[in-house]
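Why do we bother with holo predictions? Because pocket geometry can differ from the apo form. Keep that in mind while you read this record for cobalt (II) ion.
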Amino acid sequence: MRIYYKTSSEIEKMRDANLVVCEVLDVLEERCRPGVSTGELNELADRTLRKLNATSAFLGYGHPPYPAVLCTSINEVVVHGIPRKDEILKDGDIVGIDFGAFRHGFCGDSARTILIGQVSDAARKLVEATRHALELAIQRCVPGNRLQDIGWAVQSFVEPLGYSVVRKFVGHGIGRAMHEDPQVQNYGEPNKGIRLKPGLVLAIEPMINAGGPDVEVLDDGWTAVTRDRQLSAHFEHSVAITENGPVVLSRR
Ligand code: MF3
Ligand code: CO
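The structure, written out:
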């Protein structure tokens, strides 16, 4: 494991990359409504990215090469849904939008789950719990705490609500590469794992299921769905650990 601790000037650059991500997500969120295709969201993300002089962190990533700049994960899709022109958002959907960008050699990465029109109480509660779980996780990003305190904050909040934590995918360190050490689980035990130190930057991304924790990847090699096909929600922020506590780089 090789962890790259960032200087404050590097963190400033990461802030820039993440503000691009935040801006793109704001534009997409504004456009999200019944009748809009996920393919159209991907094009809007691509146009906005160019306008902001940044490049995609997702396009061409991995094996098989990821074919879009955006991930759009509807309802039972956990993460890594591939946008399509013939996939139309409809009233009552929840859609995770996940976006990553490079600027000045550094990566920003963030995701939100958006409610489309009038959604069920069950869906809204899952999304709000996942959003809150990420906030609790961020609050643990203080020097002296340990890595698993982050996952424990997520798990100990969502499991009593009857939800489950996805284990197959995790958050990650982030910097000059989108994925750096360490892996950031959304479950764990308090007071375990490496000590959090100033300069560590983490992409924390709870994926929370209404049903069981198991996921499967579809034949496209990317789309991850819940095995029981129940709903899943996902939020992600890139967070710098500093002497003054957590700084959420992907939020204005
Ligand atoms: N936020 C996700 C991650 O950290 C998105 C990756 S999508 C990919 O892994 F296409 F780039 F893989
Ligand atoms: Co990420």
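The radius of gyration is 17 Å.
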